[in-house]
């Protein structure tokens, strides 16, 4: 497999998260609540990915190992719950900037756990991404007048849990095929969601039927595809650069809000999006030896798991 597949997979995994906020807002606009949106998303997403598992190669897993990998789905579930909670009190453009703090949190996690000191290039890339995110979210032009402290806290919690999920994706269960591992992650996320939000709304047939289009879309892009793409790419690029690549969610989130929510982007926001794209390219550019920096920093992770 070509080595560029791994960073591309992480990049697309982040982009999947970028489409979620718009459709969560649309679901809220139809009167659905946090429990209904989150619960139905994980039900649909988990079913979709386990159906995919039926038609792919699988590896035998002990109950103990299965349970360990399933625990990796906890931060995935918490990311959705925290982020969707922040969207109840924050505009999508403000919620995304707080979630976007996973960029530096992920690098900090990698430094604290793996003792991997970030390179000057990575630090500069993070700085560019943060500047771009501030511009893209419209903070300089619109200020923080609509800022909810509660929403801010939920957004930062989502950033922490997303960083944890990115790290887990690159370290837990790498011996399994990506689809099988992702399905176990999703099942762990589903159980976590059910513990927090018991799916009693599914006993109301009218509500279950009405939310199904949203649940299928959110399940596909929020539960099925991200863990699958991260399972493919994260073990090879590492959590630090992985968080940089998955920052693709910000420009995607802004584009989706422009098209589906009819939000207007100012010039400063477009400049911010451009800065982010340039930073992502800069952070993964080949070094003098012709290898991408992501692989150079993780020489032990070059082989397929």
UniProtKB/TrEMBL annotation:
Keywords, alphabetical: Cell membrane, Membrane, Transmembrane, Transmembrane helix
Signal peptide: none
Domain of life: Bacteria
Membrane protein topology class: Multi-pass membrane protein
Entry-linked Pfam families: EamA
Transmembrane segments: 39-56, 68-86, 92-113, 125-145, 151-170, 182-202, 214-232, 239-261, 267-284
Record's keyword annotation contains ATP-binding: no
Location relative to the cell: Cell membrane
Record has Transmembrane as a keyword: yes
InterPro entries membership: Diverse_Substrate_Transporter, EamA_dom, EmrE-like
Residue intervals of the EamA domain: 8-136, 150-282
Family: Belongs to the EamA transporter family.
Protein name: Drug/metabolite transporter (DMT)-like permease
Lineage: Bacteria, Bacillati, Bacillota, Bacilli, Bacillales
């Amino acid at each position: 497999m070509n080595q560029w597949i791994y960073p591309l997979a992480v990049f697309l995994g982040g982009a999947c998260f970028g489409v979620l906020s718009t459709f969560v807002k649309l679901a809220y606009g139809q009167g659905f609540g946090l429990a209904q949106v989150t619960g139905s998303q994980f039900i649909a997403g988990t079913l979709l990915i386990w159906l995919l598992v039926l038609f792919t190669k699988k590896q035998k897993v002990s109950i103990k190992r299965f349970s360990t990998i399933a625990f990796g789905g906890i931060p995935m579930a918490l990311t959705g719950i925290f982020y969707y909670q922040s969207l109840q009190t924050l505009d999508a453009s403000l919620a995304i900037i707080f979630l976007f703090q996973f960029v530096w949190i992920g690098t900090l996690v990698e430094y604290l756990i793996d003792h991997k000191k970030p390179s000057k290039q990575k630090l500069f890339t993070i700085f560019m991404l943060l500047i771009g995110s501030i511009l893209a979210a419209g903070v300089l032009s619109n200020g923080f007048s609509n800022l909810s402290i509660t929403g801010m806290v939920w957004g930062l919690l989502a950033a922490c849990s997303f960083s944890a999920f990115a790290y887990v994706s690159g370290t837990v269960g790498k011996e399994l095929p990506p689809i099988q591992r992702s399905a176990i992650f999703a099942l762990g996320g589903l159980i976590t969601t059910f513990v927090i939000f018991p799916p009693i709304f599914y006993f109301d047939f009218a509500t279950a039927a009405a939310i199904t289009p949203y649940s299928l879309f959110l399940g596909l892009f929020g539960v099925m595809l991200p863990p699958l793409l991260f399972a493919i790419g994260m073990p090879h690029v590492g959590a630090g650069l992985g968080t940089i690549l998955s920052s693709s969610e910000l420009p995607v989130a802004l584009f989706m809000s422009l098209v589906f929510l009819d939000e207007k982007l100012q010039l400063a926001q477009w400049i911010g999006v451009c800065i982010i794209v340039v930073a992502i390219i800069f952070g993964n550019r080949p070094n003098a030896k012709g290898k991408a920096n992501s692989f150079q920093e993780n020489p032990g992770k070059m082989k397929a798991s």
